[in-house]
UniProtKB/TrEMBL annotation:
UniProt-recorded name of the protein: Sugar ABC transporter substrate-binding protein
Keywords, sorted A to Z: Signal
Pfam entry (one): SBP_bac_1
Ranges that cross the membrane: none
Gene3D superfamilies: Periplasmic binding protein-like II
Biological source species: Microlunatus endophyticus
Signal peptide span: 1-26
InterPro entries listed in its UniProt record: Bact_solute-bd_prot1, SBP, TAT_signal
Top-level taxon in the UniProt lineage: Bacteria
Length: 439
């Protein structure tokens, strides 16, 4: 897998785990009077060209990269010398970071900026806002470098053609039951040997995000009103868990207990996977695999309940710690990376939607599959929704708890109700501890 693809698997929950320092890898951009330390993905996301452009504009600032590691970050904070810029996921982590007083309030910087003004910033960037109670309101604490509506699907038309099944309508959402039925009809296997899987559902970026999206669509919430408890035994949540059990029982695709060894992308590009639950960003992978470009289709997100939802699961971007010693230099890099040439270059690559709305005009549409995907995406914008996470527990704990419960449930044949009890029993003590820590 490429660095661009693997970035979606990296756990960006910085400052969410205890640990000791890990070894740091560093590389720089030449001399300078100030060293700006960035914990981010170099060179796959922050490229050498990005660094060179910034160094030309700010020759007195040297950039140093350190390994993107939760353990290292925890140790750097403990030592009182955190990085100046940190990669993270805005959807899941903004409330968590703000409640712990870790992130710098960037509202004064945005107010002074002529590059990153409110009229230029995409609506998705509101996930990086938090007023202490509600995500999407209050000061900005970070910005998304790019994003996708991650419950959308890419279809391999060759798999559908071989099965004699009509592919989904690109703009009419399937129900999750319809999606599972289609997956059953296009799966090809003899015993345990698959020649084609039907579905890799939209849970890869974050298992908890996939489930929370389904629950929200059904009109429920996994959290109580103040986000201090979860209840996966509520009807909407238990229905979502039951769907996953039904999906696993149908044996139409990989599960947390039975993953694909080579990954979903490899199977998709080898015409061995019919539907994969990735957002617009996956078009960047398609661009690198010309053998599949003439038989792919991008389609709208499936719908679980009565409400049509199509959220962003991550909104990966960066934030500046409150204890950074070089906040102005960090902000200068923010403006360069998020609002100038690097952002234009990312938009042109097709590796996600830009955080600056004007740069939507730079998204690729030369090839037929690019134009088709962009047309579907443009229609999908109006269905953007925001997932709600608790500030009292790291999303990595949510994902781990759900994953462990699903593995145990699938291996032991547990019911959805028993799965819900397992998740509740694991997460509610963690939420209680988290609430006490920030009280």
């Amino acid at each position: 897998m490429s660095g661009r693809f693997s970035r979606r698997r990296l756990l960006a929950g910085a400052a969410t785990a205890a640990g000791v320092a890990a070894a740091a890898s560093a590389c720089g951009s030449g001399g300078g009077n100030t060293t700006l330390t960035i914990m981010g993905n170099h060179p796959s996301e922050i490229t050498d060209s990005d660094v060179a452009g910034f160094s030309k504009k700010y020759p007195n600032v040297k950039i140093k990269f350190v390994t993107n590691s939760v353990q290292l970050l925890t140790a750097m904070f403990a030592a009182g010398d955190p990085p100046d810029i940190i990669r993270d996921q805005g959807v899941q982590n903004t409330p968590y970071l703000v409640k712990r007083d870790l992130a710098e309030d960037l509202a004064p910087y945005f107010a002074r900026s002529t590059v990153l003004t409110d009229d230029k910033i995409a609506a998705v960037d509101d996930v990086w806002r938090y007023d202490g109670s509600v995500q999407g309101k209050g000061p900005r604490y970070g910005l998304a470098k790019d994003y996708s509506q991650d419950a959308m699907l890419w279809c391999n038309l060759r798999v559908f053609e071989k099965a004699g099944v009509e592919p989904p309508d690109p703009t009419k959402p399937m129900s999750y039951e319809e999606m599972l039925d289609v997956a059953k009809r296009i799966t090809r296997r003899k015993g345990a040997q698959y020649s084609a899987y039907g579905l890799y559902p939209p849970f890869d970026v974050s298992l908890s995000a996939g489930v929370i999206n389904m629950v929200t669509s059904a009109g429920g919430s996994v959290f109580n009103d103040d986000y201090t408890k979860v209840d996966f035994s509520a009807p909407e949540a238990k229905s979502a868990l039951q769907w996953y059990l039904d999906y696993a029982d149908a044996q139409v695709g990989p599960t947390v207990a039975r993953p694909l060894a080579a990954g979903a992308a490899a199977a998709f590009f080898a015409d061995q996977l019919g539907m994969v639950g990735y957002g617009y960003w996956f078009g960047g992978e398609v661009a690198s695999n010309p053998q599949v470009q003439d038989h792919v289709r991008f389609v709208t997100a499936p719908q679980f309940g009565s409400t049509r939802t199509s959220p962003c699961f991550a909104a990966v971007g960066h934030w500046i710690p409150k204890t950074s010693q070089h906040k102005q230099e960090a902000w200068n890099f923010f403006e360069w990376y998020f609002g100038e040439q690097p952002a234009i270059d990312r938009a042109k690559s097709g590796w996600g939607l830009p955080g600056i709305t004007a740069m939507n005009a730079d998204l690729p549409e030369v090839k037929p599959y690019q134009k088709q995907a962009l047309d579907v995406q443009n229609a999908e914008f109006s269905h953007m929704s925001v997932l709600k996470y608790s500030p009292y527990v790291a999303f990595t704990a949510l994902d781990a708890s759900l994953s462990q419960a699903f593995v145990k449930g699938l291996e032991s044949g547990l019911s959805a109700g028993r799965l819900a009890d397992l998740v509740n029993d694991t997460l509610n003590p963690l939420l209680e501890q988290g609430k006490e820590l920030v009280a």
